[in-house]
Specification:
By secondary structure, this protein is mainly beta. 8% of the residues lie in helices and 33% in strands. The chain has one helix and 16 strands. The strands form four sheets. Strands 1, 2, 3, 4, 8, 10, 13 and 15 form an eight-stranded antiparallel beta sheet that branches. Strand 11 and strand 12 form a beta hairpin.
Length: 283
């Protein structure tokens, strides 16, 4: 019986080895493979925002331009919006007479220049007040420097250009078209606070030369824009660090003034309005 037990043990051991070899030698059949290919194609993006047209001060995004390879990119929002009065979120939809007159500046007084826009809303109305001022006998005290100031905001992850186009203008009370005399001066404000809304904390100037760089000509006559010309060329994104759209935004400011020498009382009273379209695109 001892011999039998040994024989069974040897036989069992050999069978176990043979079974193992058989399993290892069996071919793989019926298998399937899955291929994975993670990829990211991040397009250029330019977001333009300003004020709504309903008279409120809630910011609204009116351009959402992606660099799709098409000339200028593709704007996913078809609606247009209006600029704001610089330093506020009030729309400029109809600032010509709707909110008041363009502010006067009294220059050359004994205490310096006097700005008649005391409340900073971009217009002169009965809500504005100024102190009495004294003529400076050594300087020509005069009424001049009448201007209007508008703004819009841009956030981007890439460089962008801006085209300006005067599409319509109207002069009332003058025998000439003031678009030939209105002077446009543009610049960038990288950060600030308008109506309690802080912007630009995570932004940089969209041109590496600084806030006044990238503008093709400054200042320039407004009528130069008729037919559309490039007024700004950027070479980098506005976003410089992580943040919200507002934090990564800069403000583009436009100053429109009457001629290079300013306004004079001899010009009298008049109404002038123009429609200027600024188009932001990915070059």
């Amino acid at each position: 019986m001892a011999a039998n037990r040994v024989a069974l043990g040897v036989t069992g051991k050999i069978r176990s080895v043979l079974l193992s070899v058989a399993v290892c030698a069996a071919p793989l059949v019926g298998h399937a493979s899955i291929l994975d290919n993670p990829a990211f194609n991040v397009e250029g993006l330019v977001i333009v925002w300003s004020a709504p047209t309903d008279g409120t001060t809630t910011p609204i995004v009116n351009d959402f331009v992606i660099g799709t390879g098409a000339p200028g990119g593709t704007d996913l929002i078809s609606d247009d919006a209006f600029t704001v009065v610089t330093g506020s979120l009030l729309t400029t939809q109809d600032t010509s007479g709707a909110f008041g007159g363009i502010p006067y500046v009294i220059s050359g007084t004994a205490t310096g220049d006097v700005d008649t826009d005391s409340n900073g809303d971009g217009n002169i109305t009965a809500d504005d007040t100024i102190d009495a001022f004294v003529f400076n006998p050594l300087i020509d005290t005069r009424v001049d420097a009448v201007d209007t100031r508008t703004s819009f905001y841009v956030a981007s992850n890439t460089a962008f250009d801006i085209v300006g186009d005067v599409t319509a203008s109207d002069s009332s009370g003058l025998a000439v078209d003031l678009s030939d005399f209105i002077v446009l001066d543009m610049n960038v404000t990288v950060s600030g606070e308008d109506d309690g809304l802080a912007f630009g904390d995570a932004a940089q100037s969209p041109n590496s030369g600084g806030p006044t760089a990238g503008f093709t000509q400054n200042p320039r006559i407004l009528s130069d824009l008729e037919g559309g010309i490039t007024v700004f060329q950027g070479d980098r994104a506005t976003a410089v660090s992580p943040g919200s759209i507002v934090e990564q935004s800069v403000r583009f400011d436009q100053v429109y003034s009457i001629g290079f020498t300013g306004y004079d009382l001899a010009f009298g009273t008049f109404d002038f309005s123009a429609t200027v379209v600024y188009t932001i695109f990915v070059p």
